[in-house]
Amino acid sequence: MSSLVLHDESEWIFNVDSPALLTDYTRSALDIPALIEHFGSVSIDEVLYNGRYVFDVILTISAELSRKRIEPVNPVEVLKSKTAIRNSEFMQALLKDPYSVDIRFVFNTDESYSNIGLWAHRSLLSRYKPFADLIHEASSESSAQTSSCNDAQDVINAEMLTIPLSDISPGTLCVLLRYIYTGEINRTVDTSLHAISMTDSALVMKGIAGRPARFVRWSPMDKDSPWRLKDVTWEELLRVSGRFGVLDLQQHCEDAVIAAMDTSNAVEVLFTIGSTFDKVRDAAMDFIVDKMGSVVLKDTRPFAAYKNHPDAFDFLVELLERRAPKAAVIDGV
User: Domain named BTB: which ranges (predicted)?
Assistant: First the structure.
């Protein structure tokens, strides 16, 4: 008994009594139904040994053929993969393109970065309602300020919105924007991937055809800048993703914060993150209850720093309620 493997866009395995019977079939006129009817098909598992074919006769249209089984390639999946790569490359280019941005974020969190402007695209950010609301508010204020002015330069300046942020660092927003544009999470900030402006560089950025040239001062920063932005923590990224409704990133950050929790930081995580994110709160509660002896060591008061926290009473009551059943089991009740 011989086995025949036919390689094309799909694979077929046949029982062949005599390989000589195949001489009438040509590459250009293979009748698959006739082959199946004449020889009968068998399971591919019967002609595989350690992932390799065990065969006597091969018909193939491939230039090369390996004895190792290779799963047939789905051309639709290949097209999707190539399209995804092209889209990712496009979005990476768009993220740092200074000629298409139309919204600038400025920061008051650190005087060192008070002259930085981080640029983005309203159309992309508006997919998230918190961003859309922020943009709408800033646009309304800008329109009110310029409604009585007819100067063309003032009109184009008004279209380039500026939004001040007082509680988010430029590094954290860089990481968030990179995720929104490309789907990548990298908490080490590479400023060369972003459109960042400063007050001490100069580059002429031309406006739309027919309008006056507009001066935008772009940053020469790159990843080797001596004052590069510091790495972003999971906690920082969780807060900003939750604030702007980037839910898939929020879930990833929640899992990362929970995974990094230990006896030294569980109480801090509960009060600083758990008060806003229920998933983290529940995980911190369970962790503290399960490891109470290690969290609250002799002569330590890990909860004292949070005695004025607005959720302090509720959290402590819930911890006691969760602890009670475990304590009863330990006491043999």
Answer: 101-189
